[in-house]
Every structure is written in C-alpha cells, then in structure tokens.
Inverse folding.
C-alpha cells in the first residue's frame, strides 16, 4: 500500500513539472506568425493573412459611423503588404482569431495609425495592455507622432521578455515547492510505516 502511495505521489509531482512550465497552457501559442502578407481586409480592425489566419487588431474599435472609411483606410495601408505581428498576453479571442499589434516594414504602428486617423477609438481590455499608453495617446496625438514604431516595438519586446522571465522564475519556484512537498509526504509515509 505504501509503495503505491509513494508511486502516485511521485507521479503527480513529475506530471506537475511540464505543466508548471506552460507546456499545457492553451493561451500561449508558439506557432504564431511573426510576419505575413495581408491578403484581405474585412473591416477597420479585422483582416486575413497569407497564412490563412484571421487577425483582429488589439485595442482598436472602429467607429460605427466611419466603418466604410476605416475599411478603405486599412486597405490602402496594409492590403498586399508584409506586416510584422506582435502578440500580447491573450493571443486569440473566443472565436479563435489571432489578436495582434501590426507594424509595417517602415515601423508604422498600424493599430495606432487608424486611431490617429480618427476612424477608430482605442479600446483597451485586460490582459492585452502592453501598448495601452501608445493607443490611448493616439486619440489626441498629431499625425507626425504616428511614426516611432521601432521604439514602441523595443519597449514591448523588453516588457514581454521581462514577463516571460518572471513567469519562468515563478514556475521554477512552484515546481521546486511541489516536488519538495511530494517527497516530504512520501518520506513521512515511509517513516510512519516503519514505526
């Protein structure tokens, strides 16, 4: 009986390790495109990539009264062009569409551009808040400040690296604690049986 208990305790501890490092986290996707061509614009914040994936721009809510203008603006800005995609914490919506920030090859921040044009408003929803400052400031910023996407990308990459490093450290600590408790429990069972 004790051998079975120890075996199952160890099995649970071993199963915890890959789970704690995000191996079973459905939110974190590793096969997401970093760059692709825009092949179709659906509306002011939704488009299709050459990879066949549908993308919704994070933090962008087209104004209903300017929907047609927003669609035309997006077609002129990104249709047929390669874009760089950057992701935040939540990478897909409930319909399975990618949620991303887009940058043109000249580092123009697409999400910010449509807001600055006055065709959309910033709609910041947690947990995707990495570019909230840039998007919210776009509603009143002059068009010449729309450039500078490279600086925004650099800030976002640093934030993402910090988040990933912190999560990895927390997972390692939790894993060590779980393994310690599993072995301590198994040891206590063995000692109890030998008394």
């Amino acid at each position: 009986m004790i051998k079975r208990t120890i075996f199952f305790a160890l099995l649970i501890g071993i199963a915890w390790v890959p789970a704690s490092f995000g191996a079973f986290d459905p939110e974190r996707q590793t096969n997401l495109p970093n760059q692709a061509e825009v092949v179709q614009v659906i509306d002011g914040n939704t488009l299709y990539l050459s990879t066949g994936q549908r993308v919704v721009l994070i933090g962008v809510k087209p104004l209903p009264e300017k929907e047609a203008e927003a669609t035309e603006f997006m077609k002129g800005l990104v249709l047929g062009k390669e874009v760089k995609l950057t992701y935040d914490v939540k990478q897909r919506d409930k319909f399975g569409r990618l949620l991303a920030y887009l940058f043109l090859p000249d580092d123009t921040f697409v999400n910010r551009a449509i807001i600055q044009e006055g065709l959309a408003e910033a709609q910041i929803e947690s947990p995707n808040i990495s570019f909230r400052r840039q998007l919210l400031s776009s509603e009143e910023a002059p068009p010449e400040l729309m450039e500078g996407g490279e600086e925004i990308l650099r800030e976002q990459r640093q934030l993402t690296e910090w988040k990933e490093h912190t999560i990895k450290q927390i997972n390692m600590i939790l894993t060590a604690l779980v393994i310690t408790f599993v072995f301590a429990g198994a040891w206590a069972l063995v000692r109890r049986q030998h008394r």
About this structure: The two ends are 16 Å apart (CA to CA). Residues 35-147 form a domain with the OB fold (Dihydrolipoamide Acetyltransferase, E2P) fold (CATH 2.40.50.90). Strands lie at 35-43, 46-49, 54-57, 60-62, 82-86, 98-103, 120-122. The chain has a mean pLDDT of 81.
